[in-house]
Amino acid sequence: MYGYGDIMLFSGSASRDLAGEIAEYLSLPLIDYDLIEFPNQNLLPRLHGSVRGQDVYLVQSLNTPVHRNIMELLLMIDTLNRDSAGRITAVVPYMAYARSDKKDQPRVPIGARLLADMIEVAGADRYMTIDLHAGQIQGFFSIPGDVLTAFHLLSDYFIGKDLENAVVSTVDLGFAKKGRNFAAKLGTPLAFVEKRRAQDDPRARATSVIGDVEGCNVILVDDEVLTGGSVVEAVEILKQHGALDISLSFAHPLLVPPAVENLRNLPLKEIVMTNTVDIPEEKRLGNMTILSVAPLLGEVIRRAHEGRSVGELFNE
Amino acid sequence: MYGYGDIMLFSGSASRDLAGEIAEYLSLPLIDYDLIEFPNQNLLPRLHGSVRGQDVYLVQSLNTPVHRNIMELLLMIDTLNRDSAGRITAVVPYMAYARSDKKDQPRVPIGARLLADMIEVAGADRYMTIDLHAGQIQGFFSIPGDVLTAFHLLSDYFIGKDLENAVVSTVDLGFAKKGRNFAAKLGTPLAFVEKRRAQDDPRARATSVIGDVEGCNVILVDDEVLTGGSVVEAVEILKQHGALDISLSFAHPLLVPPAVENLRNLPLKEIVMTNTVDIPEEKRLGNMTILSVAPLLGEVIRRAHEGRSVGELFNE
Amino acid sequence: MYGYGDIMLFSGSASRDLAGEIAEYLSLPLIDYDLIEFPNQNLLPRLHGSVRGQDVYLVQSLNTPVHRNIMELLLMIDTLNRDSAGRITAVVPYMAYARSDKKDQPRVPIGARLLADMIEVAGADRYMTIDLHAGQIQGFFSIPGDVLTAFHLLSDYFIGKDLENAVVSTVDLGFAKKGRNFAAKLGTPLAFVEKRRAQDDPRARATSVIGDVEGCNVILVDDEVLTGGSVVEAVEILKQHGALDISLSFAHPLLVPPAVENLRNLPLKEIVMTNTVDIPEEKRLGNMTILSVAPLLGEVIRRAHEGRSVGELFNE
Amino acid sequence: MYGYGDIMLFSGSASRDLAGEIAEYLSLPLIDYDLIEFPNQNLLPRLHGSVRGQDVYLVQSLNTPVHRNIMELLLMIDTLNRDSAGRITAVVPYMAYARSDKKDQPRVPIGARLLADMIEVAGADRYMTIDLHAGQIQGFFSIPGDVLTAFHLLSDYFIGKDLENAVVSTVDLGFAKKGRNFAAKLGTPLAFVEKRRAQDDPRARATSVIGDVEGCNVILVDDEVLTGGSVVEAVEILKQHGALDISLSFAHPLLVPPAVENLRNLPLKEIVMTNTVDIPEEKRLGNMTILSVAPLLGEVIRRAHEGRSVGELFNE
Amino acid sequence: MYGYGDIMLFSGSASRDLAGEIAEYLSLPLIDYDLIEFPNQNLLPRLHGSVRGQDVYLVQSLNTPVHRNIMELLLMIDTLNRDSAGRITAVVPYMAYARSDKKDQPRVPIGARLLADMIEVAGADRYMTIDLHAGQIQGFFSIPGDVLTAFHLLSDYFIGKDLENAVVSTVDLGFAKKGRNFAAKLGTPLAFVEKRRAQDDPRARATSVIGDVEGCNVILVDDEVLTGGSVVEAVEILKQHGALDISLSFAHPLLVPPAVENLRNLPLKEIVMTNTVDIPEEKRLGNMTILSVAPLLGEVIRRAHEGRSVGELFNE
Amino acid sequence: MYGYGDIMLFSGSASRDLAGEIAEYLSLPLIDYDLIEFPNQNLLPRLHGSVRGQDVYLVQSLNTPVHRNIMELLLMIDTLNRDSAGRITAVVPYMAYARSDKKDQPRVPIGARLLADMIEVAGADRYMTIDLHAGQIQGFFSIPGDVLTAFHLLSDYFIGKDLENAVVSTVDLGFAKKGRNFAAKLGTPLAFVEKRRAQDDPRARATSVIGDVEGCNVILVDDEVLTGGSVVEAVEILKQHGALDISLSFAHPLLVPPAVENLRNLPLKEIVMTNTVDIPEEKRLGNMTILSVAPLLGEVIRRAHEGRSVGELFNE
After folding, report:
1. Is B in contact with E (3 or more beta carbon pairs below 8 Å)?
2. Phi, psi (5° rounding) for residue D217?
């Protein structure tokens, strides 16, 4: 009724766990494909069956190995396109190169725009993603997309907790406005960790806290945790400024080494995150709470397929 | 020697003053064109002479009347292109629709990307602009551009002043990172005015200060002043928090009513701004200091024409 | 059944009356949206609900304020596209910049091609319009469109009248071929008003009549009336050449001042026009007959939605 | 000095004579290339030497054999592009498909836009042409072009003659406005031949004259002569209306059979035309005057190469 | 159910016979259109009825008159597009310019890429073709396509024959890999005719056989027969090397003169080919077997329309 | 004089050795840039100085790590473009994904076209490469390029040797035509190694020799050596058919494990190859002769910069 055949849900090699959960949510089979790697590392995806006319969703997060994952995504889009898929949606829960979103120094690229162009030139009709580092990246695409947020998942989780004496703090100033929204949703005050390069020694960096955290329980928020280095700095300075319990909340668990070691050694009450990137067992700590984005993605895929509102999902 | 003829500098109807200063800086004539407006408001630009093969720069800020100014810009680009200009650079000191840079609510456009696409489809080869609301907007363009900043002009001005007991504060959290850079350049502490919508009444808004301004002289920074409403709120709350002298610094003097009245009534020590938008005499107040961006734009135009580094200008 | 969801009919701010009539014809609700105007005149349309997968028609004539209306149209197309509309049709009963369709002097733009490119780059899938100034403008679009004509409405109206002793005359030579078709349909002779710039004084203009109108009732035809200046000249010279009753017929009632005054003062038997542009009460004169294009547009929208022939409507 | 190497002038197989004259005007060699035709009619152009970085002009009119000539033009553009020409200008004195410029009936193509797209997709940077059937066709191209006119050549020729008692008449109403300009330049009155399909029998056609030619010497004007059928009709009806001497003036001498027979049999005082299409000896009649466009094209090529004004040529 | 209306099957003027067979296979009417040719050879296709929203297939092989056939194809695509067809598939059983697929000498075009670009710019959504000269040509298209093969038809035919003592030989080395596949399918040995330009005289050409054909029955394979010149050479040298019976097998029967004379005079046991190009009665010889590709094309059209797998057809 | 500033020669991280040799050939400095790799593997190239208006050549072969090398190439092109380089040429001596040049099975991508599109969308103006796996890949690009060949280097080397009793053999049938050209240049006979999948067991493969190698010295030719597996098979079967000395000649030394072990263990008289891919010391064997392509690339870069013929280099 809406111009395309049935939903066909494919999992790229980077998102087997998450795609499996989405398939379960939708009560649909997860469709497999061959991915041949030649000795020169060139990849060749090969579908097991036809996708002609169907409404195809390919789930592939762009975490490490990042360039192989990008190329697999693009080759699969080309494959689906040349096999005459009815509509191709690239479901990229974690987008790569999102921090390369502007020229904050001269003579550098804008990697996120390049990636958007590559996804479009490969032939994707639409994309879905979660919590882009900067909302403006949506404007790098000319194809329509669903840019979702795990904000509600994460903030609702904390609203269910005791928030007495709580203050929300961001890990750095780049997350200032989103931190404000988080604090507003929870009804708490707000603080920031500021990092500033020293004038005389660009390699030294002064860290300070702006706002009041003395005697407060802090919910430290950010969009992603990579090595955890910034979190370590933030927890240290917050403690110095008299913070009591500190919990950590973020969307994208990249957790590249030594992230797990860093997090293990910190006095964090709780680490709350989503599964936009598959998290192998060995990276899971006792104080981690993982909130699944699979119901969110599954529901949005269903609504996108049926031509129904996605905004409604969020009372928008 | 670099593939194009001579510089030809045109002024659109929105930037006569600034373009005149640039022409003076470059010791070049400012070239005029007819702009016929028919009774149905349709515009017809008409050049006085040929631009064939030349290196054309068209200066046009996109302040009010904004849509007429946009259309004049686009029609001129088409005119220059169809008259076989060698290279066309749209010099847009103030870009319109820059705050429509992301979908921060569902079912709205991304106006800044649309405008970038319109400038490209009209046939511009390059663009120049100053202090985009968000650096990511550069990624909305696929043509190359020089995105300049008045940051050095403004911060250097304050460095020449007595900065004892000074603190930099931003008007809101959207300017947090740029405010940090300003404070770092001046070597002062940092504070923020936070505006938060009330949970129970979305029309009410609570304003607070994050960081310490008690007994300090505040340099209040932002990228533009439109009606001045945010500045009024910020000055009020800063005074409540014990701020002493307050100076205001920003790049783009849009100053639409009642901005001048607002600024006149505020206890501001000094208002420091640039002339990216032409400022008529009647909008000038005694405590205003206007730093001209004409030497900056003129120098960049010269270097762009000669194929020399622009970054060098900023020791980059 | 034809690849898109239901018809959703939106009215832009320029065409509330006409869009309302179309909605009535189709027995469909007319869908509203917010159009926020910021103090810097930047516009922000915001939909009230989702258009995902639907077959959307946006009615917006491009009369004055022309540039605001153009930008509203383009921003809405971007909004609909980014909200994943199934198909977007720009219904522009009166197209702007249609007289800027060629370079009849050097160093001018081709505004109509620029506008077509802007509509395409904004993301429209199709367009509909009525009586383009030149049929070639259809070739400025690469997207398909329905270029309709009010010719049948207007000529059928006169065929129902007494045509004895009638002659069709055009207001100028630009309408010569369409005037011929009008005369052929009515079975009357044909004449032209010719305007010619004087050789020695380009500001003077000689007006004459080619063909015989002596003792005839004249139906004076054109595509639009803007200020009515040409009509005044034409009526005067026709009267000088012995015309008896003169009626006026045209498609687009732009009627910018002093059009109504001009028309009121002319000895016109009847003024027959359509409502491609909304006509406020105060512009309506006693001798005006307004033929609605709403049934035409409504029927074409229905057929476009259902995948049925539009040409059949005209026995073509 | 203007970004490209030297002029290289190529002649396509359709325009050997004209290109030769242009080369002579410019004192440049005319460059040859191989054009292999395989038994399946597929063409293979092959350059004799490199065009890398040069400013290439390819002269090729699109008269019969029209599709072979089009394909030769496109293949040569591709060849020049893949051989890294610095700039490629398609010089097409007579453009094909120019009468397929709008959908004057449903379910037909717009061939002229298609041809423009083909020339662009093949890789031309610019084009030059003479007296397009409709000026709007320039808007079908997004690349810049020089659309020249032989109007001055032709009208200046007649101005040098005795114009007493002269009237300009067009062959049909499609040439009405250009006929008016011709008459205005000569300072003569104006008339039109009108052709109208009969209401009851669409195959029958009534011809009449609008305007007064009784006792006048008529200069009959049009843009091209194909078979001469319209000219035959026009001369006949003009004679019936009392015309004395009739001269014929047009730009494009397509002259496909039986044009020469038609023209030979008509009582024409003089036939004045240009050589946008090569005219073999056997098509030349005693009363023909052929005005060469080679100096015009040569001069425009020189100015385009040197980045100088073309409009100046026409005191514009 | 799959986004488009009904199948509408059109036959271009080059493929009346084949399109008729496809229509019969699909039990669908073959839809006709007018193709007007003006005296200047410009073509004007005109549809008899609307194609709005329908799933249109246009069958047109690109044999001689090749450029007229190409232009008819492109004009029809433009016509269908501007008449708002739901989806347009260019069914081109024999693609022109396929041997112009690379620059095997400097300063030549890549005609096949140019043709692909022309088909795309005209507005085709998809294409179908059979046995491209080089598989890489599929990569010249960015739109999806079904590149089919008559390989199974031809090889299955021979499998049904007595293959004792058979060897497969290619006409030249360009067909080496496809010849290998043919031999592998039949389970026979393989040989090649090699043609080599002489070092000292580039016009002389030495022909030899690589592999063993002495005392064998040879199946000589190629993709197309144009004039038959290569076949004549091949048969001669194979006979010299002791070949017994020789049969000939190929997909595309271009058969331009003197192909039929050449084939008639050769001692060929059987000539097996398809009808991708219509074969008039006078080109048919007694030893020819023509295998129709109509069921193949018909079945693929049906599956493309219904969104079902095409690969399944070939057990893939 | 040719529209761009000076040559600026950059080396990507994959081609330090080759780029160094080219710089030496051209007596130009090799320009360095930073390539930052973040913990999430995202890359950030950063130039040391401006490239504004210059004629930039970036040398980067696409061997392993292939996807990182591809992304570095694309990011650098974006960087150069956004830094306003005058012209950007991607010099890719070895192109990746070149064997993914057609759909030789259903439901696979055409990786080489995808890669070409990615290079174009990133903003390259031109490309250079050596011995593409299939010449048709040049047609995947719409930007112009110089597709060079090491054929002359390699064949000239053998011509200088004693060729008595020599025969050229290809490693498989995919190289048949290029092998023929090699043999023709050397004036030797030709043979092929044929590999054929068994009908009954698709994993088994029969290898044979077509043509006569008994008692001959064989020059075994191919375009690249990856793991050397095919060479091992070919040498074995050639020896079985009585070949005497065997030499190996190819362009691209990918040499991924166990290539070096394979080659070391083979009874090869000589291994002749180029350095399109940097060859570390530990991969060099005693019987290897490495012919540098640096003079070829250097000379072509010089000619491309100066707008001189490249074909002349090869007497073409």
Report:
1. no
2. -90, 125
Kindly determine whether residue A192 and residue B192, on different chains, have CB atoms separated by under 8 Å.
yes
Average pLDDT over residues D120-148: 97
Rg of chain B over CA atoms, in angstroms? Answer: 21
pLDDT of residue F117 exceeding 50: yes
What letters, b where the CB count within 10 A reaches 16 and e where it falls short, cover D70-79? bbbbbbbbbb
Catalytic-role residue among D161, D178, D185, D195:
D195
**F227/A44 Cβ within 8 A:** no
Question: Residue A2 pLDDT more than 50?
Answer: no
Domains of chain E: 7-149+294-314 (3.40.50.2020), 151-291 (3.40.50.2020)
Residue type, F88: I
CB nearest to A82's CB, from E144, E304, E312: E144
D79–E45 CB contact, under 8 Å = no
CA nearest A17: which of A33, A27, A30? A30
Tokens 């307004």 belong to residue: C290
| Nearest Cα to Cα of residue D73 among D82, D84, D61 | D61
Helix (H, G, I), strand (E, B) or coil at F166: strand
Count of CB contacts below 8 A, B vs C?
Answer: 139
Whether F256 and A40 lie within 8 Å, measured CB to CB: yes
Nearest in space to E110 (alpha carbons), one of F177, F147, D116: F147
Cα Rg for chain E, rounded, in angstroms? 21
Q: Which one of B197, B211, B311 has the shortest CB-CB distance to A210?
A: B211
- ipTM field: 0.95
The chain-wide mean pLDDT, for chain B, equals 94
Question: Using one digit for the tens of pLDDT, what is the confidence trace for B80-115?
Answer: 999 999 999 999 999 999 999 999 899 999 999 999
Q: Which residue of E has its CA nearest to D50?
A: E107
Hey, which chains touch B, using 3+ CB pairs under 8 Å?
Answer: A, C, D, F
Each residue's pLDDT tens digit, C12-41: 999 999 999 999 999 999 999 999 999 999
Q: How many helices (H) and strands (E) does chain B have?
A: 8, 17
Read off the amino acid at residue A232.
V
Chains F and C touch each other (3 or more Cβ pairs < 8 A)? no
**Do B52 and D304 count as a contact with CB atoms less than 8 A apart?**
yes
Dihedral sign of CA atoms E122, E127, E132, E136 in order? positive
Among E185, E195, E239, E283, the one annotated catalytic: E195
Print the SS3 string covering chain D.
Answer: CCCCCCEEEEECCCCHHHHHHHHHHHCCCEECEEEEECCCCCEEEEECCCCECCEEEEECCCCCCHHHHHHHHHHHHHHHHHCCECEEEEEECCCCCCCCCCCCCCCCCCHHHHHHHHHHHHCCCEEEEECCCCHHHHHHCCCCEEEECCHHHHHHHHHCCCCCCEEEEECCHHHHHHHHHHHHHHCCCEEEEEEEECCCCCCCEEEEEECCCCCCEEEEECCEECCCHHHHHHHHHHHHCCCCCEEEECCEECCCCCHHHHHHHCCCCEEEEECCCCCCHHHCCCCEEEECCHHHHHHHHHHHHHCCCCHHHHCC
Residue E55, CA distances (Å) to E2, E7, E47, E52 in order: 10, 5, 15, 9
Of B126, B303, B307, the CB nearest to F54: B307
Whether the Cβ atoms of residue F168 and residue F191 lie closer than 8 Å to each other: yes
Question: Is residue B178 annotated as a catalytic residue, yes or no?
Answer: no
Task: Name the interface residues of B facing D (CB cutoff 8 Å).
Answer: 1, 3-5, 49-50, 52-54, 81-84, 86, 123
Residue at F90: amino acid letter: A
Q: Go through D110-121 and write b for each residue having 16 or more CB atoms within 10 A of its CB, e for each that does not.
A: bbbbbbbbbbbb
Cα-Cα-Cα-Cα dihedral sign, residues A176, A179, A185, A187: negative
Q: For residue E65, is the peptide bond before it cis, meaning its omega torsion is within 30 degrees of 0?
A: yes
